[in-house]
Amino acid sequence: MMQAVKISEKVYWVGAIDWNLRDFHGYATHRGTTYNAYLILSEKPTLVDTVKKEFYDEMMQRIRSVIDPKKIQLIISNHSELDHSGALAQTIAAVEPQEVYVSAMGMKDLMEHFHQDLKLKVVKTGDRIDVGGDTISFVEARMLHWPDSMFSYLEKENILFSNDVFGMHYATDRLFDDENDEHLWISEAEKYYANIVLPYSDIVLRFLDQVKQMGLSPRMIAPDHGFIWRKDPARIVALYAKWAAQKPTQKAVIVYDTMWGSSEKMARQIADGISSCGVQVRLLSMHHNDRSEVAHALLDSAALIVGTPVLNSQIFPSLADVLCYLKGLRKKNLIGVAFGSYGWNGAPIDELAKMLENMHVQLVAPALKVCFVPDEEALNKCRELGVNIGHQIKEKAN
Ligand code: FEO
Questions:
Q1: What is the CA(84)–ligand 1 centre distance, in A?
Q2: Residue 395 has what pLDDT?
Q3: pTM confidence score
């Protein structure tokens, strides 16, 4: 039988490890993920969040390893997305708790997910509940990253249950930050931020301010994915403040695809021009990279340069895919340019530039177009464009 993992005096991790998850609604999760649920063994045993539906049995085994599930009196649902609430209805049916606490939007979402009366009770920011020997207070975290999102704070134990916020997609049986390589966790938490939280960066900054004013200084932050922060929880909070500020650094990302190598030749010349200015560049072919890697690379970049071949009078499909994804992530403070090669109709490359404009990327030059294969003169123009972009990044970024 799978075991619960003790994380503090009274709190146990009773979640599930999804080792082989490789796609999380479009986010490529090369390292899998965890669905973290927590059991507070207070006088009124309390379950915080559940797991994806398929992992119900795993969660229940872990709960059973420390308590008869029927003894759970309270359930808190901090987030209604189905990776945390998928097993909720089944858990409520099995446990028959006295109360199930959700935010107002959580109530609406869960009703629309399950279409049954789960006997939910709405709580709001500032509400506190007695869990027997300790108290949980609630902080609504609207749009971090769904309207229903909520934090729960176990006061005496000083543990903040933060739902998706401060999480990462990383399957591990080493639950704590200090049991894992620091470079790895920073990279995975950063990738998670870039792919999930980024569109709500203004809200993140306001929320962090609000939490500071409330005087919360948790000794442990327990998110719904990945590691539990116990070594230095303030570190991940500070990283969130940095990522949310979206200050451009001296980095550029070139995203492209190619049919017969022309757009790739152009991309490599542009990259060389940018590098020559001392700006770090990443060249990402959409044939070899997924959109989540691009989003991650873009997080601290000052420029997004996109290149496409023309196929059937359209931009290449892989570029349409990644730009649709990036548009939703609403990255700020980018300059950019479009480039590409065509045979008899270069208009789609101009359309690519318009797509950048629609993403609020500031265009620094007209689209650079080459008919079929770039000659030496065209390649030099590409490199000059790179140098131009490099200089502009140097002026703009720290
Ligand atoms: Fe991990 Fe928004 O669900």
A1: 7
A2: 92
A3: 0.96
